[in-house]
Amino acid sequence: MTDIQSPTLPNPTLLIPVNPAIESYMRGLLGKTDHPILTVMENLARERNFPIVDRLVGAFLETQARSINAKRIFEFGSGYGYSAYWFAKAVGEQGQVICTDGDPLNKEQAEQFLSEANLWDRVDFHTGIAQTLFAQTDGVFDICYNDVDKGDYPEIWQIAKDRIRPGGLYIADNVLWHGRVAMVEFEDVVPGWTEAIRDHNEQIFADPDFDSYINPTRDGVIVARKKL
Ligand SMILES: C[S@@+](CC[C@H](N)C(=O)[O-])C[C@H]1O[C@@H](n2cnc3c(N)ncnc32)[C@H](O)[C@@H]1O
Predict the structure, then answer these.
(1) For residue 147, how far is its CA from the centre of ligand 1 (angstroms)?
(2) 38 FRET partner, CA 20 to 30 A, in 49, 87, 112, 127?
(3) Atom of ligand 1 nearest to the CA of 128
(4) Predicted confidence (pLDDT) per residue in 179-211, tens digit
């Protein structure tokens, strides 16, 4: 554990890191050229209350992947392929995104959506426990992306960090957990998840092999770059 100051906010109201009006402005700046299937996927997320990264973070993931010329990406927790859409675009025709999810129905939907966007041939989607599927792969990755159940975050960091190439990235979504990480009193969605996310974030910032930063957009996205 690092010597991070104890959270000092006594207010149990959840916090939105970036003012929604500012996020709306930022979203308005994004290009309008993305595939129409994205809107279908976003509408489905709203209907089912399914937690996708949404467009601002999606565009951020694509930018991160392109900035290091990523060609091989592992996703822990792919849902029905929304975040994979952005990574698959970034890796190009020769690249590969290995997707994982516990729910076979998500794989079926991902195939349908990503085929429509002409990206399915860059995706290798497996169903099961992401940690187990990761252990069945070889070699290093340009990016390991973590979006599984939050109680598993520290474990995912531990298994992923040694399998990222120098100059590669570890990225995880929801690391501010709607502000709970900075609060004294809060209602946990699942007992222990907030503490797991805090532990995960502290381990990453304390790791001398990585340069780390949290982008506070939406629910907070951590990016840790392995030093060369
Ligand atoms: C937040 S959603 C992923 C959303 C996706 N990254 C996106 O933005 O489009 C989390 C997904 O991870 C899956 N999941 C959670 N824990 C998992 C685990 N340990 N192994 C495999 N899948 C897991 C859930 O079934 C769910 O579909």
Answers:
(1) 6
(2) 127
(3) 21
(4) 999 988 888 889 999 999 999 999 999 999 999
Alpha-carbon span 73 to 168, nearest angstrom: 10
**135 within 8 A of 159, measured Cβ to Cβ:** yes
Helix residue spans in the chain (DSSP H): 20-29, 37-48, 54-67, 82-91, 104-116, 130-135, 153-160, 193-206
Distance 3 CA to ligand 1 centre (A): 31
* CATH code 1.20.120.1200 for 20-26+34-226: no
Query: For ligand 1, which residues put their CB under 6 angstroms from it?
Result: 51-53, 77-79, 82-83, 100-103, 106, 129-130, 147-149, 152
Q: What is the whole-number distance in angstroms between the Cα of residue 25 and the centre of ligand 1?
A: 28
**Interstrand relation of 221-226 and 164-173 (parallel, antiparallel or unpaired):** antiparallel
Q: Note the pTM of the prediction, 2 decimals.
A: 0.94
Q: Which of 53, 119, 148 to mutate to test the pocket of ligand 1 (most atoms within 8 A of CB)?
A: 148
Percentage with pLDDT > 90 across the chain:
87
**Amino acid letter for position 35:** H
Q: Distance between CA 98 and CA 75 in Å, rounded?
A: 6
